[in-house]
Amino acid sequence: MIKANGGKSLQALVDQKDDLVGYFYNETVAPHYRARTGLTAAFIPPEFTNWRDEQRAWRETAILFDQSHHMPEMLLRGPDAFRLLEKIGINSLANFTTDRAKQLIGCTPRGHVIGDCVVYRLEEETFELISSMPLLNWVHFNAEKGSYNVTIERDDPTPYNPTGRRWFYRFQLEGPNAGKIFQDAVEGGAPEIPFFRTAKVKIGGCEVLVLRHGMAGHLGAELSGPYDEMGKVRSALLAAGEKYGLQQGGTKTYFSTIFEFGWMPYPLPGIYTGEELRDYREWLSDSGWEANAQLGGSFLSDDIEDYYVTPWDLGYGHILKFDHDFIGREALEALPESKRRKKVTLVWNRDDVTKVFSSQLGDGPRYKALDFPVAYYGWPQFDEVSANDGSPVGHSCHCGYSANEGEVLSLAMLDPASAIPGTEVVLTWGEPGGGSRKPHVERHEQFKIRATVAPVPYAQSVQKLKRAAIS
Amino acid sequence: MIKANGGKSLQALVDQKDDLVGYFYNETVAPHYRARTGLTAAFIPPEFTNWRDEQRAWRETAILFDQSHHMPEMLLRGPDAFRLLEKIGINSLANFTTDRAKQLIGCTPRGHVIGDCVVYRLEEETFELISSMPLLNWVHFNAEKGSYNVTIERDDPTPYNPTGRRWFYRFQLEGPNAGKIFQDAVEGGAPEIPFFRTAKVKIGGCEVLVLRHGMAGHLGAELSGPYDEMGKVRSALLAAGEKYGLQQGGTKTYFSTIFEFGWMPYPLPGIYTGEELRDYREWLSDSGWEANAQLGGSFLSDDIEDYYVTPWDLGYGHILKFDHDFIGREALEALPESKRRKKVTLVWNRDDVTKVFSSQLGDGPRYKALDFPVAYYGWPQFDEVSANDGSPVGHSCHCGYSANEGEVLSLAMLDPASAIPGTEVVLTWGEPGGGSRKPHVERHEQFKIRATVAPVPYAQSVQKLKRAAIS
Q1: Measuring CA to CA, which residue among B263, B262, B99 is closest to residue B195?
Q2: Which residues of chain A lie closer than 8 angstroms to B57, CB-CB?
Q3: Which residue numbers delimit the GCVT N-terminal domain (chains A, B) (predicted)?
């Protein structure tokens, strides 16, 4: 299912489909999407307690997420590994020492995003890449086709992994008490670790690689190590966290934090068109990740390029650096300001959200159900967003409910003029024509939902506001 | 976890707990409850397509449910097997030929229900009992302690089964097209099978034991056979069903059909009190099914006997037969008419249901979330039901949403005077004091929901009404 290449090619699939968008809109099932919590349920429960209280723990005390199963990984080694990553990344890798991790964002020659991942520099010539199957495939392809002295090993998500296990366990420790728990859990006390730096520490008698990061404004840590040591490290973290209200987070909570902290995962990779990528499509498989995109939402175009996004659309404008030679640089430099959309949070009108709910009662019309906490059903989701006068101003993507905010939120890409906090917009919820043929989408009617533009990340902005109100 | 007996006893647990209701209300996690679809997710997905369309298929075309994993089974053999079942069952087994199955309902000496199951008479002296762990344990205990020449073998639900598999696969084929699909699937054509009779047929090259039953008014069939033949039989059924709109049903749909057809599964067994059952409690384990009841809902009494139910409360008054000697007979014969509650459907007021939903938005108060399609969170659930003047009139148990009806429905046991269709009652939704400590119940406030009494099964009554309107 997620074989990157070999067999019939993605190009063969593209050639065969007259209506590629229609195919992705109706016929495919994405190998991973965040509403499919059943996919990993054998390894991580959808809920340890209940997702509402788990969401609260993420914001109010601390939470431990298990990331050991759903993300693909790659080990890239060799004297040319760094040169390859620099060629791929639109962001600067200039100060990439072996005590750091970096986000890596890769684009097509035309400047459309393929994906983003986190890269650890484990050793001078050894890099560990985590998540974004399309980006790992793109690195893999470039490694094979370019003149790079590198080797590549891949480790697929557990549900698809032929070994039924992974190289590494991976935990995410988050929340306002995460720092204290980490401090207590590390044998001999935790070292000072600057933001996005890594260190090796001992937890539960095991050596653990830790990456210090933070979402929604507080200290967080990503912890990894050999898969067989997962249990010992988890037990030690849970023991240290008991007095700080640490909870384990299930997949429902894990996949619903993005509405608050604002990361836009897994855009449609911009690889389905253009002669310059024919080689790549011929290398990719017709049964792999890219062949099973699952478009969903009210936006329906007959041109797949209308679903492509640029780094600005995803909020990466500030880390895009023209200080090195990378694939897509010329196109991105040439993109006019007016075509650079902005990432925002949309806060959905509560009365309209309630109307979607109450339409489930009675004889109809019945609007597309808003599942909680993850409401989107496309991978990616593209819902039309319009100004009050009806003119299109962008697309809303990931959407869902935050028990912390008591709101339905979505992450959207809007034209600069509409991306100003406080702007009122209208989102079309549900698919045209009674709904697509995607089997997990029930028959439904469309409905217009009013929404207000807000900053991203939403949670942090609220925290700042609260702090400002107190001081 | 579900070991019936051995080790420390249930009596030891009862002796140890000053507040047994408080223990079951706050501290336990039931080994199986219908909202826990994650428990069987490794074997049956929560949704094959989406539960809303799967619910519709159950009503409008046909659905295939997989019952192979969640129900305990027992094989009871020997010259005294029938005599033992007659002693347990409150219903008549008089005409129990080997081409029949029967529902078996067992009570305590005081006439409180322990559980109900389906029994197949496979051979003259061989009976297969399916579901209700408390009833299987009760049969097991009586077989060991009484003077019965029988042998017993047990086969536990897959998640707890040490073999990781089952003796038999089991499918349920339901819906208005189920009869036609069955006819087409059976090699050589299906025989005429009267209601609740069994037959052996050939499907997909395999011999299949079929029980003809029907829920919600249409022909249905339960199909079983050796576990290894599951795949072949399923494929043949799906192939036969394709032109009739047959869908596979996931656990979300499976566990949400009861609101329409009205079966009340798994009452609290009335076994925790009374000297006459001390032997039984000493036989049962302190870590088994009965030790992990998980009471939930707005009704909270300090007397566990307030949760006991009689056959009338569950709607079994019409099959209770005083034509044989059985455990509980004297008590049941003596129960006055006024203490025989009636099983009804409650149709929840749509505006009040919408208010529970909209309380999830904004700053509160936030009422207990109504999860769709299965809303109950106790095993069993006991919500207080009052008349308009506030006087208590009974309890509401299983509750959830039917996309077919566009209603939130519950199954309730009400005093005869309030059990009249059309009566307006008030249900208290949510637990007192901010909610119990049950980990899967989020912090919440209580809310009063108006409801209307309706017949049970609800779906059938609606169908009859519709038929009446047409003819």
Answers
A1: B99
A2: none
A3: 47-263
B364 is in which domain, residue-wise? 341-471
Last residue of a domain, one of B210, B233, B261: B261
- Rounded to whole angstroms, the Cα distance separating A395 from A208 reads 40
List C-alpha distances in Å: A312 to A107, A116, A266.
Answer: 12, 13, 15
Residues B128 and B191 reside in one and the same domain: no
Pairwise CA distance, residues B229 & A346, whole Å: 51
Per-residue tokens: B429? 């939704």
Cβ–Cβ under 8 Å, residues A135 and A115: yes
Q: How many domains does chain A have?
A: 3
Partners of B225 in beta bridges: B169
Same domain, residue pair B66 and B77: no
d(CA B239, CA B243): 8
Nearest Cα to Cα of residue B376 among B322, B413, B430: B430
Q: Are residues A349 and A457 in the same domain?
A: yes
Considering the domain boundaries, does residue A193 fall inside one?
yes
Looking up residue A123, the CATH number of its domain turns out to be 3.30.70.1400
Q: Which residue of B has its CA nearest to A53?
A: B442
Q: Indicate if B50 and B128 belong to the same structural domain.
A: no
| Torsion angles phi and psi, residue A350, rounded to 5 | -65, -40
Longest dimension (CA), chain A: 66
CB contact under 8 A, A408 and B366: no
**B210-258 residue pLDDT tens:** 999 865 556 789 999 999 999 999 999 999 999 999 999 999 999 998 8
Among A381, A420, A182, residue whose Cα is nearest residue A298: A381
Is A139 a member of any domain?
yes
Contacts of B441 in chain A (CB under 8 A): 50
**Is any Cβ of chain B less than 8 angstroms from the Cβ of A164?**
no
* B339 Cβ under 8 Å from any chain A Cβ: no
Give the global pTM: 0.94
What is the tens place of the pLDDT at every residue in A77-103? 999 999 999 999 999 999 999 999 999
- Under the banding of pLDDT at 50, 70 and 90, the label for residue B105 is very high
Burial of B16 per CB tally in 10 Å (0-12, 13-18, 19+): exposed
The Cβ-side half-sphere exposure at B393, using a 13 Å CA radius, reads 27
User: Which amino acid makes up residue A285?
Assistant: S
Let me know whether A236 and A173 are in one domain: yes
Q: Which two tokens stand for residue B30?
A: 């039931």
Among A197, A230, A261, the domain boundary falls at: A261
* DSSP type of residue B265: -
Give the closest residue to A170 by CA, choosing from A216, A222, A100, A120.
A222
CB contact at 8 A, A446 and A431: yes
**Residue from the list B361, B439, B443 with its beta carbon closest to the beta carbon of A407:** B361
In angstroms, the CA B354 to CA A54 distance is: 24
